[in-house]
Amino acid sequence: MEARHLRYALALAEHEHFGRAAAALGIAQPPLSKQIADLEREVGARLFERTRQGVFPTAAGEAFLARARRALDEMAAAVSDAGRAARGETGRLRLGFIASALLDPLPGVLHRFGRERPDVRLELHEMASSRSSAALIAGELDVAITLGPPRGAGAERLVSVPIGHDYLVAVVSTAHPLAGRPEVRVEQLRRQRLIVAASEDEPAVSAGLRALLGRDSPALAGATVARDVHTIVGLAASGVGVGLGPSRMLAAPRQGTWFCEVVPRTPLPDLVLSFAARDTSPVLTAFLDTIRRNCPTVGAALDHRLRAAAPPSE
Amino acid sequence: MEARHLRYALALAEHEHFGRAAAALGIAQPPLSKQIADLEREVGARLFERTRQGVFPTAAGEAFLARARRALDEMAAAVSDAGRAARGETGRLRLGFIASALLDPLPGVLHRFGRERPDVRLELHEMASSRSSAALIAGELDVAITLGPPRGAGAERLVSVPIGHDYLVAVVSTAHPLAGRPEVRVEQLRRQRLIVAASEDEPAVSAGLRALLGRDSPALAGATVARDVHTIVGLAASGVGVGLGPSRMLAAPRQGTWFCEVVPRTPLPDLVLSFAARDTSPVLTAFLDTIRRNCPTVGAALDHRLRAAAPPSE
DNA sequence: CTCGGCGATACACAGCAGGTATAAAGGACG
DNA sequence: CGTCCTTTATACCTGCTGTGTATCGCCGAG
Fold this sequence. Notes:
2 copies of one chain form a homodimer. By secondary structure, chain A is α/β, with parallel strands linked by helices. Chain A is built from 12 helices and 12 strands. Chain A has 3 domains: 3-86, Orthogonal Bundle (Arc Repressor Mutant, subunit A); 92-163 and 270-309, Periplasmic binding protein-like II (D-Maltodextrin-Binding Protein, domain 2), CATH 3.40.190.10; 165-269, 3-Layer(aba) Sandwich (D-Maltodextrin-Binding Protein, domain 2), CATH 3.40.190. Helix content of chain A is 44%, strand content 24%. The two termini of chain A are 35 Å apart. The structure holds a DNA duplex.
């Protein structure tokens, strides 16, 4: 039994007449008679009652037609759904990201992507860079935003693009002596109560701080440790001390805080976007396109990938 | 797009390998490749990712396959449902009947039919014989149980079979003077307060009573009129008078009542089963078969019809 | 009784599903 | 780094079957 039989039976039920149903189907009447006969033989029951007044479905025919309609609807929906999925209008995107990404690139990107692709289910997982990388390699994520490029086994199968350069910035409460000053020198920081990110989550950042302040700096040893950048800002705002974090903090200023540039300017690991080199899924492509349009400075780096994923122009 | 494409795509998704999927389908590998290619061209999206490790559905493929599974399920259900309907296992039977039929043949018939055809929806409509006949002719009923054969325009297109012979019986309360007596003579009835059926509903019965008791019998003129036989019995049981009804009342005796045969024995119109001569629906056939097995005396009359409706033995 | 309309049947043809042979691609391995 | 092997795609042929044309059989209308 093929979909053709269903289409023919439905047409016959609609027109109640072999000749007109055949005409509507664009075929001659005899083939329609034969196909209906074949269908009835296969089903094992007479589906239509042929009378002088017209052709009408039997009880078995009614039962058959109801299911046939649904079957054809499902087939049409299969094509439609596949098309939408292929165009990236539906689907799922699992994004792993470091918390500080919520300061700068993510708000705009997520807002834009959610508006352009309302039927894509976004799964957001805040996690440390190393976990993001591992999950990406294991296929548990589709995209990751990390500090610095992914390392370790399997990282060569990822594509990584820097999406922002950062440098060290200090944040204090507006009640703090440093408030109002445009900058703070590294030597001054050594004498402050510091608030820094946990070393186990982002070792690169911690190593950079150690290099800047001195390997065994007592300020660093006595620093308050926070799990993410939001906590650093929050603690600083409540007067706990001087928070140290990425310049991206400037993108989302918080009431009651003051930011000082650290002199000399100290670069931090780049914010990096990564994904599986093999992954050509349209949802990922659409997301990368949104990233490109949202972060103009990194456009060129992604253009190559977007061209590669584009469907072959016939 | 045909059902074949869905079956092939599902097999390919299951086996993740063109060669093995083709073998499972009983075809060679190249045709499968071609059919899948044709399908992808028609859908307008790549549905499977061919890798060294195997063949896996893309996001579009997953969306397609989910719908394809449901479409094929519907097709299988269409055949199954049609078969069940053709065998009369499902469907609907609209039965019109006179209330007194609930006394004798219907309880057994309905119980048996409901047990044998649990998925057939029985629509029971108690109505006067004339309304049953009209509804049957109009196609608003499938079967009717009436008093006497249907009359009027279109009745020739019905088949009618008597399913029980009745005679007049009197019913009284056990406190009534007639209680305990096996019979009552017609002359005695003329002196009783009578309870009879409404003449407008079953004119044949009323005419018979008039003939029996005398055209303008005062007993009949002063009789209590009830809409159906159950009411007659109920009124008699509560001492209102002597109820007159069909001998079928004996089949469902009621606490506190006493039945007397009326002498001389007075035949009443037969209980008649009718249905459209053209109606060969399996549900009706099954119902007629139940009637035949439940009313052995009328078996022969229905055998002919049941043979006519039987599927042609190949 | 004839005519007209409709579905079924007969038969020829062409289009396509499916078969065989083989190419192409891409790892595995010496 | 070349060879082999596995797997999918392509090429080409064949046979089935879906479709078209012609015609029959049936039945009701006039």
